[in-house]
Amino acid sequence: MSRPPFVSVHIQSAAPGRRVAAADIVEAYAREIRAGRIPAGCRLPPVRVLERQLGLSKNTAQAAYDELAARGLLHGRPREGVFVAAADGVSPSPPPVAQPPLPALKPVPDMFASPPREGTLRLSSAFIDPELLPREALLDCFRSVLRQPGLEPFYDHQGHPPLRAAIAQRLGRRGMEVRPEQVILTVGSQQAIDIVSRSLTVGRMATEDPVYPYGRALLERNGIERVPLPLDPFAGIDLDAWEQIVARRRPSLLYAITSFQNPTGYSYSSHELAGLLALAQRHGLALLEDDWGSDMLPDSEYRPSLRLLGGANVLYMNSFTKKLWPALRIGYLVAPEPLVPTLVAAKRLSTLGSPPLLEATLAEFLDRGYYDTHLDRLQAELDQRYQACLTTLREVMPPEVRWTTPGGGPTLWLDLPRSVDLGRLRQALAARWIDIEDASVAFPDAGHLHGFRISYAYAPMADVRRALLAVAEELQGQLQQPGRPREARAIRA
Amino acid sequence: MSRPPFVSVHIQSAAPGRRVAAADIVEAYAREIRAGRIPAGCRLPPVRVLERQLGLSKNTAQAAYDELAARGLLHGRPREGVFVAAADGVSPSPPPVAQPPLPALKPVPDMFASPPREGTLRLSSAFIDPELLPREALLDCFRSVLRQPGLEPFYDHQGHPPLRAAIAQRLGRRGMEVRPEQVILTVGSQQAIDIVSRSLTVGRMATEDPVYPYGRALLERNGIERVPLPLDPFAGIDLDAWEQIVARRRPSLLYAITSFQNPTGYSYSSHELAGLLALAQRHGLALLEDDWGSDMLPDSEYRPSLRLLGGANVLYMNSFTKKLWPALRIGYLVAPEPLVPTLVAAKRLSTLGSPPLLEATLAEFLDRGYYDTHLDRLQAELDQRYQACLTTLREVMPPEVRWTTPGGGPTLWLDLPRSVDLGRLRQALAARWIDIEDASVAFPDAGHLHGFRISYAYAPMADVRRALLAVAEELQGQLQQPGRPREARAIRA
Asked: What string of DSSP letters covers A393-455?
C-alpha cells in the first residue's frame, strides 16, 4: 500500500449550524492552497469520501472540485485521484515531511536483558507444569459463560462482582472475614504491588532480602526507596534485627511473601508472624502480605498468615496465575474498605480494568468446586515431586551443599559453598540447556546466601532430576578445583 | 469458620538432608513452647497434616505428640484438636495479636470522586452502544480458539504473536510500514500511556489543553510534569503558540490525540500534522500519537496521521475498546524497535502480560474479516447518528450556543456562552438522570472553552435527542436570567 493519505482540511459552513455548501468547500481549499498549507502534489479526498464525511449530496462535492480545477488549483489524474496543482501546472510528489526524534527511555532492567534460549529447562520457574492445567474444566466454564444471555460489554472497575464474592467466600473458609467490597481484582498479582506502591504518600517500602526480583524492579521503576530486611531460610527471621532497621529507616509499608517466599521458598512461622504484627504496630508500619504460595501446600486452609492473625488492616494479595492458568492473568488484592477507592482509582489509571469475560469464567470455576478439586490434585502432585526432589538432592549433591525443606509446595532454596562461582555455574548449565535464576538481582549487595531457587512445579520430575544431576556434576567440577587461580576466573568473566 | 489456624513451627532434621524423625518434632515443639514462642492455647496441626507436610508415616507424628503430652506440653481436646498446654494444665484461648496500622495513601483523584447514579444517561461517554457490539461473531471466534488443540498456558510478554501480526497488517493497509516486532499489546490504551510515561528519562510531557482527563490523572500520578498546549476546536491549532511553549518548557514527549481529540472531538488537519512534525524535529520533541478515533469515521484508511506522515519514530497507539468490546481491554502500542525492550519491560513490571486467550480471539476476529464488516456497520451507524445529532442541535439550541462539526465519528464539542454556569447545568441535568462530563478536569486552569463533550455513540438516538432537549431547556432557563446575582449562585454551590 503505497498510496499517500488524503489531505485533511477543516471545512466549515459559512453560516454556523448549517450544512456545508459547495462554496464552503471551494473557499476552504482555495484558502489552504494559496496559503501554502497544502502543497502541490497532495491528494484530495475523492468526492465520495467528502460526501460521506460532510453528509453532502454527490453533486455538491463534484461541483466544488470542478470549480477549483477551473481556477487551476486542482489537477485530476485518471484512476489516481485529484491533486493540488503546482503553479506551473505540473504536480510533483508531495514534499518530504519532517521526522521527529525518538524519546529517551530508561534502560531495560538487567533481569530482562538476557532471557534463556527457547527450549531451555527453567529450574527456577514456579509456573505449574502445563500437564497439570485443568483445560477441560476451564473450557466448560468458558462455554457456560459465553452462553449466558446477559453477557455485559462493560465492567465493574473493581472487578467482576461474582468473582469478588467467590474469593471473599473462599477466604472466609480460611477464617478471614472478607467482604466482596474489599476485594479488588488485578491483572495478576504484579498489578497489586504496582497500584499499592504507586498510591503511597511515603514512597519507602521494606522488602525481604533477598527480594522477589520482579517486585524489586517494579519498586525501583516506581521510584520507591527500598529498605531490605535480611531473611535467612535456614535460620529464620531475626525479628530484633528487623526492628532495628525499621526503627532507623521508617518504611511506610512492608511487602512480605509469607509462604514460599520468592526466591528463598521460606514460610514464616507463627511466632514470626505474631512478632512481625507486634513490630508493625509499634512502629506504624503497614503490611502488604503476598500469599501466592500457601495454597500449594496441603491443608493450606489452616496455614497462619498476617491477614488471618492481624485482621483487616493487613493488605492481602494472592493470584491464580501460579496455581491455575498463567494466561488468565487474574490476581486480587484485599484491602481495608477506606483504602479501596484510592486503590481502584490507581488500577483505573493504569489499565482501567481487567477483562470481565475471564473473571466470569473463573467465578464459574470456583462456584462449581473445580478449583478445590484442582488444588487437591496439584498439592498431591507437588508433594510427590517435593519428596522425589529431596531424594535426588540427598543422592547427588556434594556434602557441602545444603537446601531448605519447606514441607512441600513449589520451591526450595539450594545453598552452595562460597567457593562456587555462581556466574560460571550458570554459564556451564546454560550450555547444557538448563537455566538457574540469577539470584544476584534479589540481593541488595553481595548477599548472605549463595545459591538459587529450585522449583519442582514446572518441569516433569524426570527433567528436574536430570537438571539436578547436571548441577551436581558442575558443582563437583568446581569444588574439586579449590586452588583454581582467581586470575583464570577473571579472564573467563 | 471460627477455627483458628494451626501453629506453624519450623521442624528440621537433626542430620541435614535426612528425614524428620519423631525426636526432631519433639525437640522443635518443646523448644518453641519453653521459649514462649507458641503460647498456651495455640492449636497444633493434626497428625495427618504434619504427616503430609513432612512426608512422614502416621506413627512418627503420633509418637511425637504422645511424648510431648507426656511431658505436659500438649493437651488434647476430643474433636477439637491438640493444643499447647498452660503451666497450670488449663489451656486458655490464644493471646490477642497486634494490629498493624493502615498505610497512608494518596487521595482519590477528583474525577473518580462522584460517579453518576446507576441508570443515568451518559451524554459524554464515547463507548459504543451495546446494541452495536458483534456478540455472535465474537462468540464464534472464542469457540474456535477454545477448540484449538495447542491452547498454550503461557504468553509472549509483548502480546500474542498472531494478533500482533494481524495489527501490523491492518496498519500496513493504511500505508504504515509496521512489523509485528514493533507492536506491543496493552491492557487497553491506558496502559500504553502508562508504560511510555513511566519509561521516560525526562518526565515532562506536553499534552493538549483541554486534555484527555484519564491521561491527565495518570500523568499526575506518575509524577510527570505536564506542559499544556492550547487547542481550540473551532479555530484549530496555533502552531506558533505551540512552538513558543515547547521552546520555553522543553517537554520530552508530546501525547496527542489527532483524531476526535478527547474531549474536544477535534481532528488535526494535514497542515497541522505536518507543522507539528516539523516543530518536533526542530525542538527534539518526541511524539506519542493516540489514534483511537480515526477508525470511527468512514474511509479512515486514508486519514492522515503523525505516524503515517512522520514515519517510524512516532510512537503510535490505538485500541479496540471503543470500537469493538470494552470488556476485551485490548489496546496496542507501535514503537520504533530500539524502544521495544524497555517498553515491554515496563509492561511486564506493571502487569506481566495481558490475557492471550482474548488476544487469540481478537486475532481470529481480524483474520476472518469480521472487524472490517463491523467497522463498516459502526461507521454507517455513527454517520446517521451524527447527522441526526446535528439536526437536533440546529433545531433546539439557543443561538448563542455553538458546536463543532467533526464530519461523523463518535463525539463533538458543544460550547456555551460564558454566562452559563456549567456546575449548575450539570447539577440540573443530573437531577434529570443525564450526565455531562465535568470538563474542568480537562483544563489546567479556567479554560479557553466553556462546554462539554457530546457523544452520539453510546446511547440510542432517541435518548440522545431527549438529553439534548433537556440541555437546551436548562440553557434557556439560565440564559433568560442573565442578571441573576452572583451571590445567589454562590449560595447554591
From this structure: HHHHS-TT-EE---SSSSEEEEE--TTS-HHHHHHHHHHTTEE---GGGGSSSS-S--EEEEE
Amino acid identity, position A393: L
- Nearest residue on chain B to A172, alpha-carbon basis: B1
How far does the CA of residue A279 sit from the closest CA of chain B (Å)? Answer: 8
Q: Measured between CB atoms, which of B172, B199, B314 is closest to A100?
A: B314
Residue whose entry in the numeric block shows the C-alpha cell 512502629:
A283
Peptide bond into B153 cis (omega under 30): no
- Alpha-carbon gap: B156 to the closest alpha carbon of chain A (Å): 10
Chain A, window 298-327: residues with a beta carbon less than 8 angstroms from a chain B beta carbon: 298-299, 302-306, 308-311, 313-315, 321, 325-327
- Spatial distance between the Cα atoms of B224 and A348, rounded to a whole number of angstroms: 17
C-beta atoms surrounding A427 within 10 Å = 13
Query: How far apart are the CA of A485 and the nearest CA of chain B, in angstroms?
Result: 31
Read out DSSP for B423-482?
Answer: HHHHHHHHHTTEE---GGGGSSSS-S--EEEEESSSS-HHHHHHHHHHHHHHHHHHHT-T
On whether any CB of chain A is under 8 Å from the CB of B28, the answer is no
Query: Cα separation of B476 and B397, whole Å?
Result: 8
Quick: pLDDT tens for A385-422. Answer: 998 999 999 999 999 999 998 888 899 999 999 999 99
Q: Which three cell numbers stand for residue B442?
A: 480537562
Helix, coil or strand: residue A332: strand
Q: Is B77 helix (H, G, I), strand (E, B) or coil?
A: strand
Q: How far apart are CA A395 and CA A391, in angstroms?
A: 6
**B178-221 pLDDT, tens per residue?**
999 999 999 988 999 999 999 999 999 999 999 999 999 999 99
Residues of B in contact with A172 (CB under 8 A): 1
Residue A28, classed as helix, strand or coil, is: helix
With beta carbons under 8 A apart, name residues in chain B contacting A42: 270
**In this structure, what C-alpha cell is assigned to residue B50?**
504434619
- Return the ∠ at Cα A276 (arms to A273 and A282), rounded to 5°: 145
Residues of A (178-207) whose Cβ lies below 8 Å from B: 187-188, 190-191, 194, 196, 198-202
Taking a C-beta distance cutoff of 8 angstroms, is the pair B84, B91 a contact?
yes
Do the Cβ atoms of B6 and A346 come within 8 Å? no
Q: Which of residues 263-302 of B touch A (CB under 8 A)?
A: 267-271, 273-274, 277-278, 280-282, 284-288, 297-299, 302
Residue position matching grid coordinates 518453641 = B32
CA B382 to mean position of chain CA atoms: 25
C-alpha B174/C-alpha A5 separation (Å) is: 8
Name the nearest CA neighbour of A432 among A459, A468, A396. Answer: A468
User: Is the reported ipTM for this assembly greater than 0.85?
Assistant: yes
Q: What's B162-230 look like in SS3?
A: HHHHHHHHHHHHCCCCCCHHHEEEEEHHHHHHHHHHHHECCCEEEEEECCCHHHHHHHHHCCCEEEEEE
